[in-house]
Amino acid sequence: MITMKDTKRLEIVGLHVEVDGKEIIKGVTLTFYPGKVHALMGPNGSGKSTLAHALMGHPKYKITKGKILLDGEDITMAKPEMRAQKGLFLSFQYPSEISGVTISNFLRTAVNNLREKKNLAPYSVVDFHKLLKEKMAQLKIDSSFSKRYLNQGFSGGEKKRMEILQLAMLEPSYALLDETDSGLDVDAMKTVAEGIERVRKEKDMGIIVITHYSKFLEYLKPDQVSILYHGKIVKTGGHELAQHINEKGFEGLAK
Ligand SMILES: Nc1ncnc2c1ncn2[C@@H]1O[C@H](COP(=O)(O)OP(=O)(O)OP(=O)(O)O)[C@@H](O)[C@H]1O
Ligand SMILES: [Mg+2]
Questions:
Q1: Which residues line ligand 1 (CB under 6 A)?
Q2: Angle value at C-alpha 53, between 185 and 15, nearest 5 degrees
Q3: What is the mean pLDDT of residues 56-75?
Q4: CB count, 10 Å around CB of 60?
Q5: Which domains does the chain have, with CATH numbers?
Q6: In angstroms, rounded to a whole number, what is the distance separating the alpha carbons of residues 174 and 12?
Q7: Which residue, by CA, sits nearest to atom 24 of ligand 1?
Q8: Which one of 89, 190, 192, 236 has the fewest beta carbons within 10 angstroms of its own beta carbon?
């Protein structure tokens, strides 16, 4: 018997993706589960970000073969907004700089938009601020941060914290984090990893993390590690695979 629980997963089946007429992803099959951390690693240019964009439905990334199933539902052709509504989240999905919009207002609009699509009542200003304050405290973000303008003069680390704050506020079912750790100092990396770990546990969120740093994975302890190489998955293993790559690099994995 197939129950709802059995279909709870994000599946990529035999996916081929083209960018500007060039095939970058050449038949990738991967499954991501709720409540699990799955790390996607691979050398520069292997297609990790391309795969992430294709998963989110970016119009530039053309799926020529294969499919994407979200909790059993085929979303291969769904629009990005529809995917977000169904519970997918991509870390760099917010505009780089919008003049005159504070973080607080930006997040309230995003959260209430999503609630409206799910037929939930929007948060009042008071309730929203209460929630935002709580999440910011958990993520060790200074309370003055929410009054700043979106991305204006943000340091690298502040941009990453903004991503995690968005994640905590939007509570997606599956989150794709493309190099959320890059440019973070060691303490910030730990805080961000703890933030991810907290939302994963609380919301049974499936986390897909694209990273080059095994340090970040030491904090995150992925359940699974997959290696993408020239657009194909060449190896899958546990967290010890990340350690192996850290020591030996990607050489030899393609065989
Ligand atoms: N518009 C394009 N036209 C042609 N090739 C492209 C285009 N966009 C991306 N590519 C190529 O696709 C390949 C995969 O790029 P992608 O950004 O997915 O790699 P990545 O694994 O995320 O690398 P990194 O670790 O450096 O972030 C690269 O060789 C890149 O040059
Ligand atoms: Mg990339």
A1: 19-20, 22, 24, 42, 44-50
A2: 125
A3: 95
A4: 10
A5: 4-248 (3.40.50.300)
A6: 13
A7: 44
A8: 236
